[in-house]
């Protein structure tokens, strides 16, 4: 089967009414591929958990194939990549999340799997102080060559994106609309510039207007793509705190910039810190230490792969060690996804390797190879 044909069925699967990302994954898991889902008879589909009669019958609707082909043609016309969750270029940090989108629309040049990825979010009603802090954060981060993710919104988001452009830092604008409909429209010129060094990303198909229900969905992508989320300014309620909540649920690091007591734009950040849902941000050093970007001997360790005798490990241990060698350091969720080892077994395996001195655990449920 050609790549285009499989992509056609993958897209078609997302067009089935009320199917949802979780059920798409479940269907593919049971049937083997997106194409096989459409070729599986209704009686067999009904034996799959959570697949009802209506959904099974909807999967027989061939019109979704035609609509999927139109999307492929439009993507080709606009230079948009269609990233299915099984694709190698799909953000690996999202792959392990149960609620991540199965299909993403991407237009840009940045590597979505950059070694260091940071989300910067905040209120739309940003203050001058918030703007200065955001610009300083981006400037300080630039020396580490990260990918910076935000939501292309007014306030802190757009300041973060523009600061990235100023410092030549790749940045991703995650959208709550179709990739062909920039919202807010006033950020259209900035979005064009972003595509030159970063990119635009959305789960919404072409022509989708921004809608209130899409913004929380957008926020989960921002949180899921990043190793750490930094909230600069935020009210008690709003998108920035929703993003922080998602990041906490995904076991990612969250930092909040403390603000003035009694100021509405500081209440959200102060609340996150008070409730231990975010670490206090005082300087870029906080991020560097939390993510172990300054580990001594990090570069030196890369050259010692040949010193470890893989023959002493079990097959699964060798698999984990090889992944850690390749990626330098990895979150346990990414290890579980790429190794396909159950979380319980992987945790035990990593603990055993740590006792033997081959693996070192890091802050934020990350691991790296340790050399004696």
TrEMBL record:
GO terms for biological process: DNA-mediated transformation. Residues 314-365 form the DprA winged helix domain. Residues 82-291 form the Smf/DprA SLOG domain. InterPro entries: DprA, DprA_WH, DrpA_SLOG, RuvA_2-like, WH-like_DNA-bd_sf, WH_DNA-bd_sf. Pfam families: DNA_processg_A, WHD_DprA. It comes from the Bacteria. PANTHER family: PROTEIN SMF. Belongs to the DprA/Smf family. This is DNA processing protein. It comes from Arcicella aurantiaca. The lineage of its organism: Bacteria, Pseudomonadati, Bacteroidota, Cytophagia, Cytophagales.
């Amino acid at each position: 089967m050609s790549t285009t044909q499989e992509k056609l069925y993958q897209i078609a699967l997302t067009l089935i009414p009320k199917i949802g990302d979780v059920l798409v994954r479940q269907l593919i898991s049971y049937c083997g591929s997106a194409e096989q889902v459409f070729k599986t008879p209704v009686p067999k589909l009904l034996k799959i958990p959570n697949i009802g009669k209506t959904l099974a019958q909807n999967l027989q609707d061939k019109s979704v194939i035609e609509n999927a082909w139109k999307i492929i043609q439009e993507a080709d016309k606009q230079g948009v990549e269609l990233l299915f969750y099984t694709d190698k270029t799909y953000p690996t940090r999202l792959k392990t999340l149960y609620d991540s989108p199965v299909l993403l629309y991407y237009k840009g040049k940045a590597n979505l799997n950059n070694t260091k990825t940071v989300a910067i979010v905040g209120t739309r009603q940003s203050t001058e102080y918030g703007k200065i802090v955001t610009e300083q954060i981006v400037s300080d981060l630039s020396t580490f060559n990260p990918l910076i993710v935000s939501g292309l919104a007014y306030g802190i988001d757009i300041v973060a994106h523009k600061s990235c452009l100023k410092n030549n830092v790749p940045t991703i604008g995650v959208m709550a609309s179709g990739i062909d409909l920039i919202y807010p429209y006033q950020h259209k010129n900035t979005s064009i510039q972003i595509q030159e060094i970063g990119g635009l990303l959305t789960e919404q198909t072409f022509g989708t207007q921004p809608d209130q229900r899409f913004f929380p969905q957008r926020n989960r992508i921002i949180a899921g793509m990043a190793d750490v989320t930094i909230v600069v300014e935020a009210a008690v309620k709003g998108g920035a705190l929703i993003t922080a909540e998602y990041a906490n649920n995904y076991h990612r690091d969250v930092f909040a910039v403390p603000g003035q007591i009694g100021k509405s734009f500081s209440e959200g950040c102060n609340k996150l810190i008070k409730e231990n849902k975010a670490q206090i941000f005082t300087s870029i050093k906080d991020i560097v230490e939390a993510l172990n970007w300054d580990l001594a001997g990090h570069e030196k360790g890369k050259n010692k792969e040949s010193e470890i005798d893989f023959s002493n490990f079990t097959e699964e241990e060798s698999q984990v060690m090889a992944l850690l060698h390749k990626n330098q350091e990895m979150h346990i969720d990414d290890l579980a996804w790429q190794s396909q080892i159950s979380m319980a077994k992987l945790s035990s395996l990593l603990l055993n390797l740590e006792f033997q001195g081959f693996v070192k655990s890091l802050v934020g449920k990350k691991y790296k190879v340790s050399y004696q």
